[in-house]
Amino acid sequence: MTLATINWRRDVFSRTMLVCVFTGFASGLPLYALINLLPAWLRSEGVDLKSIGLFALIGLPYTWKFLWSPLMDRYALPLLGRRRGWMLASQLALLASLAVFGLFDPQQDIWSIAGLALTVAFFSASQDIVLDAFRREILSDAELGLGNTVHINAYRLAGLVPGSLSLILADRMPWGSVFVITALFMLPGALMTLMVKEPKLASGSPKTLRQAVVEPFHEFVTRQGWQGALWILGFIFLYKLGDSMATSLATPFYLDMGYAKSQIGLVAKHAGLWPAVIGGLLGGVWMIKLGINRALWAFGVVQVVSILGFAWLASYGRFDSVGAEQLAMLAVVIGFEALGVGLGTAAFVAFIARSTHPAYTATQFALFTSLAAVPRTLANAATGYIVESIGWTSFFFLCTALAIPGMMLLVKVAPWGDDPAPQQA
């Protein structure tokens, strides 16, 4: 056994990577509840596609979370410390708010449901602010690729709860019970928060609110220059645009193709799990050897091509009956999409983490991930209208075309093999 093999195993199975599993699961659960479970619930209760598509606007807190991230950088709650205190508060708020969905009727309480969904998105975005900062502060620069890969895999694994287990349960019990069970899966993240230690940074927390607000932006622009900063921000906006739009109405798409909720839960979601997990872990190991820049190129190509699988499936139209052949087609499409998007997302998040400065982690990370959420929030709000205007097949071709500009910007922000030196606090 070589020293490299020993080091690889030590890195993968370290306590830090275990913590990344819990941060990913806690971060992914509420988002997937909003983008998978909520649309499935609304669609199964007879809500039209246009209304469901407009529900993408509830993701606005993910887009604007950088506005209140300085407060979470500057101030600490009375217990547990600056990071852990905000983590626990947001996780308990998510547990409570997710459980309330089942008290409403989609036909009569659609505005109340929208308001509650916006509340869940706010708590989820707030949790992401502090989880991203916490993860960046416990990972060394050398661990960023692998640590963020583990986080993303756990993030996707969390999608099995609202995207698979909850859908299966929805065929067997009332929706109110389904949402309570889904909400209880926030408990592992809360327990993790209680068990870990508060990270220690040499730079410490900002001493004033002005320092917390102004300095993160000043540091980023000073370090990159105005032109370099704009290239990076443009890339962050565009890299996941096509993929985000393609998957925004995934569950309604499967339903419109003729698949039952239980089939989606058992086949589609599980077919996406193992390719994402295996591909993500391989991607993390490859990033150690390739570097983040090469990974963005290689994984991004797979991500773009995987969108075409949806167009291929949509070209068959709605199935009159779903048998083994149709289920196999769905499994192949979802599996390839999960592999491509899992790889691309792991490299993308590692790039974002690398672009932050250790002294201003929360605010800079929130700014970058907020910008990445803009397509998911604004562009995705129009997806229902687009699908009803041009159909599913043309829609997925459009998503593929929209994924190309982000790849082209790699020439500017991540030249092949030209990874920058680690940032110092």
Automatic annotation (TrEMBL):
Coiled coil: none annotated. It is found in: Membrane. It comes from the Bacteria. The keyword Isomerase does not apply. Keywords: Membrane, Transmembrane, Transmembrane helix, Transport. InterPro entries: AmpG_permease/AT-1, MFS, MFS_trans_sf. The chain crosses the membrane at residues 12-35, 47-64, 85-104, 176-196, 229-251, 271-288, 295-315, 327-353, 392-411. It is a multi-pass membrane protein. It holds the Pfam family MFS_1. This is AmpG family muropeptide MFS transporter. It comes from Chromobacterium amazonense.
